[in-house]
Design brief:
alpha+beta, 83 residues, five-stranded antiparallel β-sheet, globular, single chain
């Protein structure tokens, strides 16, 4: 079965990871940023499909998604599901 999003996601992964990850730069562009320990503290991860992770925020059980960089691993751009 063909993943219709694969080409778009691959391009996004290449763009996101083309420069060395800098937390301050990500925070300036996207707001709050989490490292892996902070992500585990604040979210229950449901699945990965690079460059996205689907998660449920522990504080209020709201489901949504974040984007992530590969190395160093940072998570950012929290977006709540609209449903």
């Amino acid at each position: 079965m063909r993943d219709e999003t694969e080409d778009t996601r691959r391009a996004m992964v290449a763009e996101i990871n083309s420069e060395a990850g800098d937390r301050a730069a990500l925070e300036a562009q996207y707001g709050q940023v989490w490292d892996s320990d902070e992500l585990r503290r604040d979210f229950a991860v449901e699945g990965f499909m690079a460059p996205f992770v689907v998660a449920r925020r522990k504080a209020d059980d709201v489901r949504g998604s974040l984007m992530f960089t590969h190395s160093p691993r940072f998570y950012f751009s929290w977006t709540e599901d609209s449903r």
